[in-house]
Structures are given as structure tokens and as C-alpha cells.
Design a protein that fits this description.
alpha+beta; two-stranded parallel sheet; 29% helix; globular
Length: 83
């Protein structure tokens, strides 16, 4: 098995559970396809959101996509003035 890290970002159209799910699922599907990553090779996933996105955890999308045995960590970016 190869070891690699992959990063991606996407804009969520509104701060709702379904919008967060849709955008996150779109991003994860694109990353997995573009990088030819079989889901059984994922050992962990780290998801972040900006401070204005708080209606749902992005990891919810990964769980709904079937990534049920992958350890997931969600975090919210710090709202640092001037960042």
C-alpha cells in the first residue's frame, strides 16, 4: 500500500446540513477518483471547515458515503483577525 497525503477544498453554498453534505461528498468523490484511491486504503481522514460553516460536521458526508471504518477528525479553523 502506498502512503500519501491529499488535500482539497470546496465552497459550500450555504450553512445547512445538506449543503455541507453535498459539497463535502463532491470534494471527497473527486479526490478519490482523481488520485485513484480505493476506500479500503484510507487509514484516516482530517476535515476542516471555516468558522461560518457549523450546521453539520463535514465528516458526516464521509460516513454517508460508506467510509464507516475510517477514523475521521473534524476541526473548525480559528477565526484569527487578519488571517
Amino acid at each position: 500500500m502506498r502512503t500519501r497525503g491529499v488535500r482539497g477544498a470546496i465552497v459550500v453554498r450555504e450553512n445547512t446540513r445538506e449543503a455541507i453534505f453535498d459539497a463535502t461528498a463532491e470534494l471527497l468523490e473527486a479526490i478519490l477518483k482523481k488520485n485513484s484511491i480505493p476506500t479500503e486504503e484510507i487509514v484516516s481522514m482530517f476535515l476542516t471547515a471555516t468558522t461560518d460553516i457549523d450546521a453539520e460536521f463535514p465528516a458526516y458526508a464521509a460516513r454517508r458515503m460508506g467510509l464507516t471504518s475510517v477514523p475521521l477528525l473534524c476541526a473548525q479553523e480559528m477565526d484569527v483577525s487578519g488571517a
